[in-house]
Amino acid sequence: MEQLAIILMDGLVYASWLFLISAGLTLIYGVLRILNLAHGSLYALGAYAAASAVLFYFDRGLWPPGSYVALLGAALIIGIVAGPLIERGLLRWIYGRDPVYQLLATYALFLILEDGMKLVWGVNPYYAYRPYGLLGTVQLGGIPYPGYSILLIGVALLAGGGLSLFIRFTRIGRLVVAIIHDPEISVALGANVSRLFLLTFTLGTILAALGGAFTAPMISVVPGLSVEVIVLAFAVVVIGGLGSLEGSVIGALLVGVVRSLMVHRIPELELFAIYLVMALVLLFRPQGLFAIEEVRRV
Amino acid sequence: MLELENVHVSLRGFPILRGVSLEVPAGRIIGLVGRNGAGKTTTLRAIMGLAPVRSGAIRFAGEDLTRLPAHRRAGLGIGYVPEDRRLIGPLTVEENLLLPAWAIGMREAPDRLRWIYRLMPEVQELAGRRAAQLSGGQQKMVALARALMAGSRLLLLDEPFEGLSPALALRIGEILQVLRSEGLGVLLAESDLHRVSALAERVYTIERGEIVQENASIGGI
Prior knowledge:
The complex is a heterodimer.
Chain A: H1 2-32, H2 39-59, H3 67-89, H4 99-121, H5 130-134, E1 137-140, E2 143-146, H6 147-169, H7 171-181, H8 183-188, H9 193-215, H10 225-240, H11 245-265, H12 270-284
Antiparallel strand pairs in A: 1-2
Helix pairs in contact in A: 1-6, 1-9, 1-10, 1-11, 2-3, 2-4, 2-9, 2-10, 3-9, 6-7, 6-9, 10-11, 10-12, 11-12
Chain B: E1 2-11, E2 14-24, E3 29-33, H1 40-48, E4 53-60, E5 63-64, E6 78-81, H2 93-104, H3 109-119, H4 121-124, H5 136-150, E7 154-158, H6 166-181, E8 185-190, H7 193-197, E9 202-207, E10 210-216
Parallel strand pairs in B: 3-8, 3-9, 6-7, 7-8
Antiparallel strand pairs in B: 1-2, 1-4, 4-5, 9-10
Helix pairs in contact in B: 2-5
């Protein structure tokens, strides 16, 4: 019983982490129709920026709990600077083009960002663990659990909840839904699609950077972070259905719990199990669990 | 009010429109009749900025639309009803109607919505339903209502009667006559000449991307 609880908690933490990354990826795909291979690099940028911000913060001897604001600030800065730069500088030239061009262009961006990060941060690992230790452990039904992991769940809930409220209850959010379903008619109805693309990509970048920033204290930040992340995020969005936010929640939960179960029971199959789930979902629902809904044609 | 002058459109190197010229004055219903593939839809799409104009000019109320970004045309008072309705499935009917108002930031949106509901009470009854749940005929009505939100001066309709029951087709005809009396210009693309000639003052016939005939019709008042 106790082990089941731990498996579920670990799964939930892993799902929160996956959700932060895949929500941005699926949102960007849904609106811009571009599968951004460089999405993992945005996550890594967030992690590096946050690690630097935290180390700088503690070097100054400032009030330790304020380091969480430094994590958040680093993610926002990366999102607000890198998002528009990439969207205006690269993506807007490849909208509507053959997916092969788009994949090549975002793969090139991935390579450029990887080397760019090595240029700025070098190849040695960064350890920004202090925010992790600050929260100590909490007792969950008698089981000690790292407080920081609970914080990560909270960040994912807040980000997901905020995104969902934004999409459901704001005019811009409703326009984003319209563009996801029919970009052309949205333009004919007066939507400035180019501005909404910019906004969406920036939002997706902030989510990825947020994932990276809040993961930084749990890991050593090293080159190569992007690759591991992008492959898993693809599995999540494919399971959930490309372009579907609800899908990314369910996909993240499914992958999170399955991975956690395997880590605790059959660690050799940790990665295999994730792709087995993906293959099974695709076998029965090739469009993923939550495909974009169509209106009736007759 | 709307004027197309010698408009050429090519898609993937193939000429689709070859020198289309036509005129839609305010307060008039103008028909554009032709078979499937003759260029009716492309003409409407070119007016909305959704098909690239290679040469020629599109003017609306003295403004040159030819190079105007597509999303700025709705704000000039042009509403478009595509042939396949293209409602946004997960949004409610009322949200679909309000989309143009949100997109162009219309201040008078609540008044306009009330006006639309008065004109089409059958749409108001559907207001809270999700568009994905509507029948084809209901979708046509909602698509027309949505086009009226921004389309205060000109309405472009692509096969609005296709697949409708006779009663519903009659109802749409009735609504179009009210709109004409309120001063809207209407460009009505149809493959069935009889449907159009009962409503339109003037009918252009399009064949293989060219206007081949221009007739005053009997339907005009």
